[in-house]
Amino acid sequence: MDENPSMPLLVRISGRDGEHELPAPPDLPAHEELTRFLDRHGPYALVWIRLASGEYVRYDSIVSIRMQE
């Protein structure tokens, strides 16, 4: 069993307060999803990234990312 089960990734966006959730596939461990984000693979290869709220933001406007604890 994986040590880091799927959990949301939280991002901070330039010019905004608070953190916003990225939707994560339930079958990927959080550390793998984080790696995909940092390497710009899968949906993160696009300019526009979809947040869990359904809103789209530019990849380059995301200033930090972390796994939810």
Please explain how this structure is put together.
There is one protein chain. The protein has one domain. 14% of the residues lie in helices and 29% in strands. The protein contains 1 helix and 5 strands. The strands form 2 sheets. Strands 2-1-5 form a 3-stranded antiparallel β-sheet, with helices on one face. It has a two-stranded antiparallel ribbon with strand order 3-4. The longest helix has 10 residues. The two termini are 18 Å apart.
Gap between N and C termini: 18 Å
Which stretches are poorly predicted, pLDDT < 50 over at least 5 residues? none
The major β-sheet equals: 3 strands, antiparallel
Secondary-structure class: alpha+beta
Helix run count: 1
Strand and helix order? EEHEEE
Radius of gyration: 12 Å
Q: How many β-strand stretches?
A: 5
Shape: globular
In total, the number of domains comes to 1
Strand order of the largest sheet: 2-1-5
How much of the sequence is in beta strands?
A: 25-35%
Please give the share of residues in helix: 10-25%
Average residue-wise pLDDT:
88
Tag the structure with descriptive keywords:
69 residues, alpha+beta, three-stranded antiparallel sheet, two-stranded antiparallel ribbon, 14% helix
